[in-house]
Design a protein that fits this description.
This protein is an alpha/beta fold. It is built from 5 helices and 18 strands. It has a 9-stranded mixed beta sheet, with helices on one face. A 9-stranded mixed beta sheet has the order 11-12-13-10-14-18-17-16-15, with helices on one face. This is VOC domain-containing protein. InterPro entries: Glyas_Bleomycin-R_OHBP_Dase, Glyas_Fos-R_dOase_dom, GlyoxalaseI/FosfomycinResist, VOC_core.
Length: 335
């Protein structure tokens, strides 16, 4: 089914509505082929404690929190991937957010209507997902709220203290320590890079909906900055007019870490059993590699090193210095 023209908010509707205030990136979800295998991998590498378990999903804390990421099993006919990212909304109120989304011309729907169909069919729509449990009432605590951008990428709007088991202060976050200390200490979520059909249309959508501005540029692509001056969202692609020919794809999640140097991170990844990706080849699961962002893409002279790994399912994770903001400088700290 093609994207319905009435589903997408018009520019006039978005421009007339007040932006939704956000504090920054809050979490993300990895859809994986084997949750227990991925849990062992990420806890062994990062030493991340479990902060919630909900059905088959397991959420792991990043640094001292409140950031986290969730490991969830792939659905039928689905390949492992980064399913969505979440934005932290101060004063989270699901009903008020639904009203604000409506003011922006975003239509409320039911996600299950789109099971087995292209994620593009959800572009410009919002929906809630009821969490496992006995409660059927529409409450903040037992629902998650999503909106899909023009490329069908789901974005969760989340309470600042949510931990993967629901929204609101009444939802418990109970730490289960990792079996052992990890080799790499995480600090926070830094950014997501997403491939889209039209990066200009996508950036305008996020600017209007959340009031975001440019933090830096990597070549022609702006980085949409968030509240702390480090976090950002980056949308890479062409300028295809009209309805996208294919859904968007979150290429990688980037995490800022402690004790970053290119050499030490590669050494620790190798110690953990990952191997170097051969030059000129696509990444395979359990490999690491370095991309040097040169001055024409906003990097330092000689290149700002950006370190990547692929997990057991081949999902890409970037690791950077805790000052990284996507700009120039040896650590990408100059924005």
């Amino acid at each position: 089914m093609a994207l319905l023209p009435m589903s997408m908010p018009s520019v006039a509707q978005q421009d007339a509505a007040e932006p939704i205030a956000i504090d920054g990136l809050h979490s993300f979800e990895l859809r994986v082929s084997d949750v227990e295998r991925s849990l062992e991998f990420y806890q062994g590498l990062f030493g991340s404690p479990v902060i919630s378990r909900l059905g088959d999903n397991v959420s792991l804390q990043i640094g001292d929190g409140p950031h986290y990421f969730t490991l969830a099993p792939t659905r039928r006919d689905e390949q492992p991937h980064i399913h969505h990212f979440a934005l932290s909304v101060p004063g989270f109120n699901i009903f008020e957010l639904q009203r604000q989304l409506s003011d922006h011309g975003i239509t409320r729907t039911v996600e299950t209507l789109y099971d087995g169909r292209s994620s593009l069919d959800t572009a410009g729509l919002t929906w809630t997902v009821r969490l496992p449990g006995e409660g059927e009432d529409m409450m903040t605590e037992n629902h998650h709220l999503y909106v899909a951008d023009p490329n069908g990428i789901p974005v969760q709007l989340s309470s600042p203290d949510a931990c993967g088991a629901g929204e609101g202060r009444g939802v418990p976050c109970e730490l289960e320590p990792a079996p052992e200390e990890g080799l790499i200490e995480l600090r926070e979520i830094n950014h997501f890079t997403t491939y889209v059909a039209n990066y200009e249309v996508t950036n305008d959508f996020y600017r209007n909906l959340f009031g975001l501005g440019n933090q830096a540029f990597q070549g022609t692509f702006p980085l949409l900055g968030l509240s702390d001056g480090r976090q950002f969202m980056m949308f890479v692609g062409g300028t295809q007019p009209g309805t996208p020919a294919q859904p968007g794809r979150i290429d990688h999640a980037s995490l800022n870490i402690e004790n970053f140097t290119e050499e030490s991170v590669l050494e620790r990844l190798t110690e953990y059993g990952l191997t170097a990706r051969p030059a000129g080849e696509d990444a395979r699961p359990l490999q690491h590699w370095v991309s040097r962002r040169m001055p024409e893409r906003g990097g330092a002279p000689g290149g700002t090193p950006e370190v990547y790994l692929s997990d057991p399912d081949g999902i890409h994770i970037q690791l950077q210095h805790h000052t990284y903001c996507g700009g120039g400088g040896v650590f990408g700290e100059d924005c």
